[in-house]
Write a structure and sequence with these properties.
Protein name: Probable sodium/metabolite cotransporter BASS4, chloroplastic
Keywords: Chloroplast, Membrane, Plastid, Transit peptide, Transmembrane, Transmembrane helix, Transport
Structural class: mainly alpha
Function: May function as sodium-coupled metabolite transporter across the chloroplast envelope.
CATH topology: Na+/H+ antiporter like fold
CATH architecture: Up-down Bundle
Number of domains: 1
Number of strands: 0
Pfam families: SBF_like
Membrane topology: Multi-pass membrane protein
Radius of gyration: 37 Å
Largest sheet: none
Oligomer: single chain
Length: about 425
């Protein structure tokens, strides 16, 4: 025990260690210190070498990153990097404005080369696009959405009244305009009597984050009721006692095929197949892009079909028709927006069912749009009762494109504003 304590004391005490070292052999001591010094020197040299290598590598990277010359970098790689830097803001703009760009692209493509669009119309691609949009809507329709639509029945009821009763009264005002050709004015008056759009209103409502189930309910109901209401509106408001027939059976069959069946199928598929339901839930962005692509087929086909007539019309007359269509849509938006505010004021203010953003968005978009396919079917059935059918359709094509493109920009503005508020 005494020896052990003495050893520990010698290891701890610096005085004892010094005395012990002095008692060592001089030659052994020199060899030990030489080994220690050599070890320390070699460590410092290795550390200094690693530091120099790292610094040199970093400086080389920084020179190349700051645009300095790099002899090993090929011109092709440098050009690709420059292109990617320039293309990045363009891709960002296209991503944030995909909806209006797709619609404008469809119009431009139809004007530049109408052949593919006419071929698509011959094979009923417009019906396929509408069918696809409502299939996607059915796949994304949830039971709680249906419940929310049922709770918002006053909103839906006013939407139906606006579509089928109030906005057709604008035809009386439109007919007071005097413009050549007069078919442009008559065509817009007929357009104001139509139900809401068959597919674009629902697609735009979903992209805007509105109550999609409510939009679907108003679209389907107004389209079916229009089979009875449109002949009455045309006869009383436009024909002034002249009987006007509407292809009731044809319209009814088409609405059932393009609206109700795909909507029911989409909902049934989502409820029946677990894997499909998971795919839909995990790929909402992909389905939104697909809906936009299907929606852009509508203006592409319509412009392709009408291009021969569009070319025949004088540019100034066509420009006036475009402005009249845009003004009509602005009036519809203003009327429905003012009505929503008034209904909120008389039904509870901020607690009103009309004040909920999802409901007001669906109502504003659905009640402010009119269906071009229904108008085309009506004009075909009327023949030459109100003038040249082609001239009747031209301003309605412009109005149809205007309402979709204007609403797409409006939705893009809403989404950017919501994103900005969320970031704040």
């Amino acid at each position: 025990m005494a020896g052990t304590l003495e050893t520990l004391t010698n290891l701890i005490s610096p005085v004892t260690v010094t005395a012990h070292l002095r008692s060592l052999n001089s030659q052994s001591s020199n060899r030990s210190f030489d080994a220690i010094n050599n070890s320390l020197i070699s460590r410092k040299v290795r550390s200094l070498r690693r530091t120099l290598i790292i610094r040199n590598h970093t400086n080389s990277d920084q020179v190349q990153g700051n645009g300095g010359p790099n002899p090993n970098e090929s011109p092709r790689k440098s050009g690709f990097l420059s292109f990617s830097v320039l293309a990045e803001p363009l891709l960002s703009f296209a991503s944030s404005n995909f909806l209006p760009l797709a619609l404008i692209g469809g119009v431009a493509l139809g004007l530049a080369n109408p052949g593919p669009g006419c071929l698509a119309h011959r094979y009923q691609l417009s019906i396929v696009s509408t069918f696809g949009i409502f299939i996607i809507s059915g796949l994304r329709l949830r039971s709680e959405d249906i419940g929310a639509a049922a709770e918002a029945w006053p909103v839906g009821l006013f939407g139906l009244a606006s579509i089928l009763l109030f906005t057709p009264l604008l035809s009386k005002i439109i007919l007071q305009l005097h413009f050549q050709p007069q078919e442009f004015v008559t065509g817009l008056a007929l357009f104001s009597c139509m139900p809401t759009t068959l597919s674009s209103g629902v697609a735009l409502t979903r992209l805007a984050g509105g109550n999609c189930a409510l939009a679907l309910a108003m679209t389907v109901t107004s389209s079916l009721l229009a089979i009875m209401m449109v002949p009455f509106s045309i006869s009383k408001l436009i024909a002034s006692g002249l009987g006007a027939s509407v292809p009731t059976e044809q319209l009814f069959r088409r609405l059932i095929i393009t609206l109700l069946i795909p909507l029911i199928l989409g909902k049934a598929f989502w409820e029946s197949f677990k894997g499909l339901a998971d795919f839909v839930d995990n790929n909402n962005q992909l389905l939104s892009v697909l809906s936009v692509i299907l929606l852009s087929l509508v203006p592409w086909i319509q412009v392709s079909r009408s291009r021969p007539l569009l070319v025949m019309v004088k540019p100034e007359a066509f420009l006036v028709a475009v402005m009249m269509g845009a003004l009509l849509h602005l009036i519809l938006l203003g009327f429905n927006a003012t009505s929503i505010r008034c209904l909120c004021a008389v039904s509870g203010g901020s607690k009103s069912i009309f004040a909920k953003k999802k409901n007001s968005t669906a109502l504003l978009l659905i009640a402010s749009q009119k269906a071009l396919p229904v108008l085309v079917a009506v004009v075909d059935q009327l023949g030459g009762t109100f003038g040249e059918p082609g001239l009747l359709i031209i301003p309605c094509v412009a109005a149809h494109l205007n309402q979709i493109i204007m609403d797409s920009f409006l939705i893009t503005f809403w989404n950017k504003k919501d994103q900005s508020l969320a970031n704040t």
